From TrEMBL:
PANTHER family: OPIOID GROWTH FACTOR RECEPTOR, OPIOID GROWTH FACTOR RECEPTOR OGFR ZETA-TYPE OPIOID RECEPTOR. GO terms for molecular function: opioid growth factor receptor activity. It comes from Caloenas nicobarica (Nicobar pigeon). One of its GO terms (cellular component) is membrane. Transmembrane segments: none annotated. Residues 5-163 form the Opioid growth factor receptor (OGFr) conserved domain. This is OGFR factor. Belongs to the opioid growth factor receptor family. It comes from the Eukaryota. Pfam families: OGFr_N (PF04664). The gene is Ogfr.
Length: 167
């Protein structure tokens, strides 16, 4: 039967691929081999997007050497944003919430601070940000986005009075 590289408990674009069950997720998490393959698949996709995983323990990321070329692809083809959302959700399902935080912050930095991925900005703010399972980390990322969003008055992802008091 069809399988996915980053399976979820929900249907995706391929309706023949069955959603994961909670039991399957638990079985995956218990298998060291499956989890190693999962990380290799994640690294493969990151490289495709021009990103390197520099610390498997923390999930820290940096631009790959070919980032400029790969970022052109990300800016040109919006279907990549759906895949990135799927990867982020799957990271959460598989117990890699800390990886979610690094990937979302990477995209927020590239879209809002460095402005290298203008066509990914909407997805980063509307979708990527809200895949982060940890409410605390999600709040920190919203605050980070608010700090770097221009014009700040147009930021709609959180109440400005609360964001201005957030630490």
């Amino acid at each position: 039967f069809p399988f996915r590289l980053f399976p979820l408990r929900e249907h995706g674009m391929n309706w023949r691929a069955k959603p994961l069950t909670c039991q399957e997720i638990q079985a995956f998490k218990k298998s060291q081999e499956v989890m190693q393959r999962f990380i290799r698949a994640y690294q493969l996709m990151l490289r495709f997007y021009g990103i390197n995983l520099i610390n498997e323990e923390t999930g820290e990321l940096k631009r790959a050497e070919n980032w400029a070329e790969r970022f052109q692809n990300l800016n040109r083809f919006s279907h990549n944003n759906l895949r990135i959302t799927r990867i982020l959700k799957c990271l959460g399902e598989m117990g890699y919430e800390h990886y979610q935080v690094h990937l979302v912050k990477f995209f927020l930095t590239e879209t809002l601070v460095k402005e290298t991925l203008p066509n990914v900005k909407r997805s980063a703010l509307d979708y990527f940000l809200f895949t982060v399972r940890s409410k605390k980390k999600r709040r920190e990322l919203v605050y980070y986005a608010w700090q770097h969003y221009k014009p700040r008055g147009s930021f709609v992802w959180g109440p400005h009075e609360k964001l201005s008091k957030y630490r």
